[in-house]
Amino acid sequence: DVAQAFGGKWKDKKLGSIGVAGCLSFFPTKNLGSFGDGGMVMTNDKTIAEAIDMLRRHGGKDKYDVTLLGHNSRLDTLQASILLQKLKYVDRWNENKRKIAEVYNVQLSGINDLILPIT
Questions:
Q1: Domain that holds residue 72
Q2: Three-state secondary structure readout of the chain
């Protein structure tokens, strides 16, 4: 789950794109949060994408063709609209957080035995 690192990179790769699948939750306290709850799975693997799609549609490819136990787990349009608007600002918010973290790093750097996180 890259919710608290949304927009971040590792070795020039966007977090959430490393490996076969990435997850992102949209709880209001996350870096890109909606007003309710929700999430998404990101993948380039067709088999995984089809399985996730079936899980979110009550466990079937078609309306009455249920082949596994699933859920009604679609993000509602209100939450999607909020996320689309907030997406415009997430890079700026992340940059502000980096600047604040740098101030903490400078101010706390003189404390012996304190190991600061990588920013």
A1: 3-88
A2: CCHHHCCCEECCEECCCCCCCEEEECCCCCCCCCCCCCEEEECCCHHHHHHHHHHHECCECCCCCECCCCCECCCCHHHHHHHHHHHCCHHHHHHHHHHHHHHHHHHHCCCCCCCCCCC
